[in-house]
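Summary for the lay section of the report: proteins are chains of building blocks that fold into shapes. Here we show the chain for Type II secretion system protein M and then a coded description of the shape we predicted for it.
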Amino acid sequence: MKTVIAMKWQRLAESDRRALRILGAVLLLGAVYGAVVVPSGAALESAQERLQQARSLNQSLADSLGRGLVPVSVLSGEALRTALSQGSAAAGLELRNLSRDGQRTQTLLSGPAEPLLRWLGDLEARGARMAQLRLTPTADGLLEAAVHWQ
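The coded shape description reads as follows.
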């Protein structure tokens, strides 16, 4: 059977063989895209949705308890930078950048999605306030978080 296929392949014109090779490459790229990129995007959307739900729940809990009854501690300044540098390592995350821009602190972190999101939530629960968060999946299956802290 293999010889029949090989003979038919040899009978094809060179332009037809080239077109079939290109078609095969395009199909392979489409399969890789569907198997790798699409699930990563869905996981990122799910993680962002869970983070938003956690923030909403946190806000509704704070509102129901009343802000006057529960003192709100704010983790900022040197305490925030210490928590970022030491806590990220303890959580198994890679702190790629920690810088200060005026009164805001900026970080670039990467790690597995679940521990990264849990750690960010824990920091917020301790009083750290995010001004901006951007989550990006990396090629190696990790999640990268660019955060601007207040």
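Put simply, here is one thing we learned. DSSP finds four helices and four strands in the chain.
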